[in-house]
Amino acid sequence: MMFDRRFALIAPLMLAGCGLNSIPTAEETAKARWADVQNEYQRRADLVPNLVSTVKGYAKQESDVLIGVTNARAAATAVHVGPGDLTDPAKVRQYAAAQGALTVSLQRLQEAYPDLKSNANFMALQSQLEGTENRITIARRDYNGAVQAYNTRIRTFPDAIGAKVFYGAKPMATFEATTPNAGTAPKVDFN
């Protein structure tokens, strides 16, 4: 009777020492960290195209303003009125019109100047890309750490007993880069 009572008191401690609770906890932690990895890749997939489109939009607007100034300047410098042309009212009007178009383009540039944000947007894009890649790196590292803890737990005594007997636990795979350029962040193409 005394042996049965002691066994009844010791059995739960022995079972607890076999990883009945710690193995599923470690497994779920590793699965949650994998979900974090997937979440960060999805965040990148969603974020990057939107950021690039925003930067492209501002760059296009600014490009249009600057191209307008460049074209107006080219047109203004293409019209030549020399001293002998001052008696030709059509040539003088043509010269004045070309200079007026340049003036209007320069005014548009001055008006748009406070809103010219391409450089700031490019810097923000670069910062967001760097931050996104860092978040992915951290998520992968956290996942690999959780997998290492789980794999160690199911392979070391006494948890290895519970892992084999109760769960049939198998080691999880760590995240490994599979592409030849995995160490290179994605390139952004504005074309």
Report the β-strand fraction as a percent range: under 5%
Compute the gyration radius: what is it? 34 Å
Q: Largest sheet, described in full?
A: none
Low-pLDDT windows of residues: none
Give the rounded overall mean pLDDT: 74
Q: What's the arrangement of secondary structure elements?
A:
Elements: H1 2-16, H2 22-78, H3 89-112, H4 118-155, H5 159-167
Helix pairs in contact: 2-3, 2-4
Structure explained in plain terms:
This protein is mainly α. It has five helices and no strands. The protein has helices at residues 2-16, 22-78, 89-112, 118-155, 159-167. α2 runs antiparallel to α4. The model has no long low-confidence stretch (mean pLDDT 74).
Question: Can you give me a brief rundown of this structure?
Answer:
It is built from 5 helices and no strands.
Highlighted features:
191 residues, single chain, 0% strand, rod-shaped, 75% helix, mainly alpha
